[in-house]
Design a protein that fits this description.
Blueprint: E1 4-8, E2 17-19, E3 25-34, E4 37-44, E5 49-54, E6 59-63
Antiparallel strand pairs: 1-6, 2-3, 2-6, 3-4, 4-5
Length: about 80
């Protein structure tokens, strides 16, 4: 089971992977401020590009990737 985190659009970064409710993955390639919103440019797993504009406080599902073999951040080691 993969770990998923909920983040506001303003907290997203290039390289993050968004997950749709149906399980499709979208890797963020570019973020740009457009008026009051944020334009998110992405590429799908099959290589198709797309974009959407979201409010800065909109919530997105982000796949967490673990780097290294240490404990997850915020966990205590006994």
């Amino acid at each position: 089971m993969e770990a998923i985190e909920l983040r506001q659009t303003r907290q997203l970064a290039v390289g993050d992977t968004l997950l749709s409710a149906s399980g499709r993955a979208y890797e963020i390639t570019k973020l740009a401020r457009i008026g009051r919103g944020i334009r998110v440019t992405y590429v799908t797993e099959d290589g198709r590009a797309g974009r959407f504009t979201a409010a800065p406080d909109a919530i997105s599902r982000v796949r967490l990737t673990r780097v290294g073999s240490g404990p997850a951040p915020g966990t205590q080691v006994a």
